[in-house]
Structure formats: C-alpha cells, structure tokens
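Could you please review the protein record set out just below?
***
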Amino acid sequence: MEDTVEVPVKWHKNFVARRGEMLNQIAADYGGVSVSFPRSGSESTSVKLSGAKECVTGAKSRILEIVDDLVCPYIVTHSVLQTDENQKDILLLVY
C-alpha cells in the first residue's frame, strides 16, 4: 500500500537528521515501512509511505504524533505532593 502524510518543511530536518535515525526507527517499529521525504530544498510537504497497510497506517500515525510534539513541545504533567494526611497540594510542571 502507498499513502502520503503532510509534514511542514520546517520539520523535515527532525526526521532526516543523524543519518535518518528517526526514519530508521519508524521503519523498524512498523514492519520495514518505507518513508520518503522530499529532497532537501524542495518546498513539498508530501511524505510518501509504502509497505503493508497496517505498517503504513501505524507509521503515518507515529509521524503525525512526532509533528504534534514538535509543534507543541510543552507537556503539562502533574504531581501530587502530600503535605499531611488530610491535605494534598498539586504542583504543575511544564517541561
């Protein structure tokens, strides 16, 4: 199966950096799916995926998750600090 996913050009470098480490990991995690980004300097946002249907679907979802993380890198988590038996304080941490 072949499919495409749109990835803004400014995020391409995050996928192809370090000799395509992230792309290699995606391929390993999703059954050897092939992921092809446009050539450097191209303004195209279309990334081509090919492989088994389930693998392409999984890789596409993972790529979109990564792009979401790049667009909004701040993750809000919370920790509960117990000051005594009857009172709890909530501390929000932003990373």
User: Anything to note?
Assistant: The chain has a mean pLDDT of 83. The first helix runs from residue 12 to 29. Helices lie at 12-29, 53-71. The beta strands are 2-6, 34-36, 46-50, 76-82, 88-94.
